Amino acid sequence: xVDPVAEVEAAMVVVRRRQTRRTLAREVGMAPQDDxxxxxxxxxEAAGDELIGVNGVAEALSVDQPRASKxxxxxxxxxxxxxxxxxxxxxxxxxxxxxxxxxxxxxxxAIRRARxxxxxxxxxxxxxxxxxxxxxRFVSALDR
Length: 144
Prior knowledge:
By secondary structure, the chain is mainly alpha-helical. It has 7 helices and 2 strands. The chain has helices at 4-18, 21-28, 35-47, 54-61, 65-77, 99-119, 125-141, and strands at residues 81-85, 93-97. It comes from Kribbella orskensis. GO terms for molecular function: DNA binding. Keywords: DNA-binding.
């Protein structure tokens, strides 16, 4: 008998390997060392409208503050992120994506979506919608 949980685990391992930031970096034309920078801009995007600084990046990436500081410095040096003084607390610095950072994210999103669209191109629309709903529900449940 097939164990659905084991099948999901195996599939998720394959997805993780194929969707690494390094793989995406090659496709977007980034140098391999830019992988860390991509993690920073992914964290900023995930924060949405919430303004975060180095500590927020550290938390999002599950790294210590000195490591996050180095990653942020690299993203700033690459011109993908800029530091802005917090308007409510002048001692705080928020991180903001630059236009180049947003363009990099858009390129990564386009590559991911093209891959996913290709993988599902033979699926009926109802199956695509069902898969999207189930996968979203599954990912949300992982946070419990």
